[in-house]
Amino acid sequence: MDKIEKQVRDILKKVRPYLNRDGGDVELVEIKDNTVYVRMLGACANCLAVDETIKNGIESLILESVPEIIEVVNVK
């Protein structure tokens, strides 16, 4: 596991309890070309606020901490 992947995984670990509280979860699919691909699971997979959760929550935390990453994309 490289440095960037470890940083991303650490951030996902931090947000996971908030997602779990609402019956959801997030899975790292891959990191490719400075883009993080995640899959939202459980209640988050079909939530109307999933895009907001990714962009305003997960993506903003990752971009703030891992400057090499340019975006986070939900894989459905």
Q: What would you call the quaternary organization?
A: single chain
Low-confidence stretches: none
How does the helix and strand content classify structurally? alpha+beta
Main beta sheet: strand number and arrangement? 3 strands, mixed
**Number of helix segments?**
2
Binned strand content: 25-35%
The radius of gyration computed from the alpha-carbon positions, rounded to a whole number of angstroms, is: 11 Å
SSE series: HEEHE
Provide mean pLDDT, rounded: 95
Report how far apart the termini are. Answer: 24 Å
Portion of residues in helices?
40-55%
Sheet with most strands: strand arrangement: 1-2-3
Let me know the number of strands.
3
Global shape: globular
Q: Would you kindly provide a written description of the structure presented here, covering whatever features stand out?
A:
With 76 residues, this protein is α+β, with helices and mostly antiparallel strands. The protein has helices at 3-21, 50-65; strands at 24-32, 35-42, 71-74. A three-stranded mixed β-sheet has the order 1-2-3, covered by helices on one side. Strand 1 and strand 2 form a beta hairpin. The longest helix is centred in the first third of the chain and has 19 residues, at 3-21. The radius of gyration is 11 Å and the shape is globular.
